[in-house]
Amino acid sequence: MKAVVQERFGPPDSLRLRDVDRPHAGAGQVLVRVHAAAVNPYDWHMLRGDPYVARMLGGMGLTRPKCPVAGLDAAGVVERVGADVRGFGPGDRVLGFCPGAFAEYACTTAPMLVPVPEGLTFEQAAALPMAAVTALRGIRTVGRVRSGQRVLVNGAGGGVGTFAVQIAAVLDAEVTGVCSAANTDLVRSLGAAHVLDYAREDFTDGRGRYDVVLDNVGNHPLGRLRRALTPAGVLVANGGGSPGRVFGAVGAMLRLAAANAVARQRLRPILPAAPDGPVHEDLSAVTALVDAEQVTPVVGRTFALADTARALRHVEEGHARGKTVVTVA
Questions:
Q1: Which of 87, 98, 242, 245 is most buried, taking the most CB atoms under 10 A from its CB?
Q2: What span, in angstroms and rounded, lies between the C-alpha atoms of 319 and 161?
């Protein structure tokens, strides 16, 4: 099968499209024929092997990538199921977390998959797993957003942001989205009552106060972000950070925890959903919102499998609109 292979840590240009063996579905596993795979900041962190401290923790490999085939978010059709798998069979349309998603086939465990909602394309379905689950956790689980609260989403035009705006609106919050001027109409159409152009307005200037702030960008110091909160407000910091850092998001989360110990406001981290976490319930909740027509995936650009490196560079630049998706089959 064709797959995008990562033999060393490095920039997107280090990726190669190769012929590799098709994975085998063992007990409890599902082999998926991938039709589309989404690109996440997670992918370029894994590609570059950063932050370096994560290599020491064993999550990505010390000197070379632990998983030679890149990618995680996928949507496609079940090809084969292993022993002890219930609820899925060949031909089922599925989406979820599939390590090695930038390939014609990927293998994962059954709890990491859910059925594709009716009416979604594979590209839209692939956009859901990491970004939508991260948004759900940030708004509902960590932020505990309630009806009538004022919620601000920084990075509202991006992958997590477009989902977060919609989920907060479903919870009947008054949503303010911060994005580029080019994404103003999009963010308003997703349910934001107010939209701020980050190039013209600074939401951390203290003039506006919010019950919950979801920061997907990390472009403001913690002290400035706290100025945007009410006295009992909640800051939800989405992990990420720029490539090439020694500690990256890990260091930011440690600083957040230290500040939270002495602050009246609640300062909470949210790390992106990972393939080894308990995500099935969140995936099901997200697809239920899609089935109810309350949430719609926003796909900005699509790339062919052979152009996966270009897709990663596009996301790494930090200005992608909605989700960037690789079309595989």
A1: 98
A2: 12
